Amino acid sequence: xxxxxxxxxxxxxxxxxxxxxxxxxxxxxxxxxxxxxxxxxxxxxxxxxxxxxxxxxxxxxxxxxxxxxxxxxxxxxxxxxxxxxxxxxxxxxxxxxxxxxxxxxxxxxxxxxxxxxxxxxxxxxxxxxxxxxxxxxxxxxxxxxxxxxxxxxxxxxxxxxxxxxxxxxxxxxxxxxxxxxxxxxxxxxxxxxxxxxxxxxxxxxxxxxxxxxxxxxxxxxxxxxxxxxxxxxxxxxxxxxxxxxxxxxxxxxxxxxxxxxxxxxxxxxxxxxxxxxxxxxxxxxxxxxxxxxxxxxxxxxxxxxxxxxxxxxxxxxxxxxxxxxxxxxxxxxxxxxxxxxxxxx
Length: 345
Description:
The protein is of the alpha/beta class.
């Protein structure tokens, strides 16, 4: 858009929420696989039906704006509960299922969560915390005869309470609105030219916004995401080649492991890159060293596209498709104002 139209363009990006856009996609591509986790697949239509059932279940038990703690590994249950809670107008609190009992207790109390969707291990640690009802996603069943209608959250309602890493103190909750979530990923999708034919693979946790962003993009565009709950370099390479992935999301340690695997196992006389069908490889969450970046075109076919974001703001800056560079995190995405200052200023 022209610069004079930029503010309106950015606002328009966030007018619809993630669950609204996912429902639109389900109508357009009902039978297409939305997400496959460890080869267990769910279509866009199945995910829409499942999340609607979760939203209806929640509507009879909490008010819009109340917190729902989600502590589960990746899978259809996680996705149904995540989208269902957003559809119900709840605020989702994402948590690693590997947290300790003390960490769960702090998170639940600090966020004021009233319902927790949790796998067996975290559910056992959450059980007994005051004011919190814990339900395993696999056990969640639609209510027979219930007619509670879930709320319809607006773009400026809070969607997530994202907790910081807590490296300098206890983790702090950051409220992120539906508009922030949608604008952040749709701006990045424009920079990366992400479309309905894209097939993304990754082995990133969904309780972190890097991995969850790949799901958001898939639900908006109508493509497919293939996710591994555990990273193994050879497995991810094999998966990428088998599903003919067009997009790979990873962090520098994963790219290093993929490169090491390729060096060990590939035929060194082969001229083509091992993952040459990729049109886009995105790197974030940590700094990519120049030495590793220089090695990756032989694996990926090109430099990975580096982007940068924070818990507090989502994606902020990114390289643009076709202009990847190893020595920069890119340019501000639409809607982001950036200031460059001397170190320590």
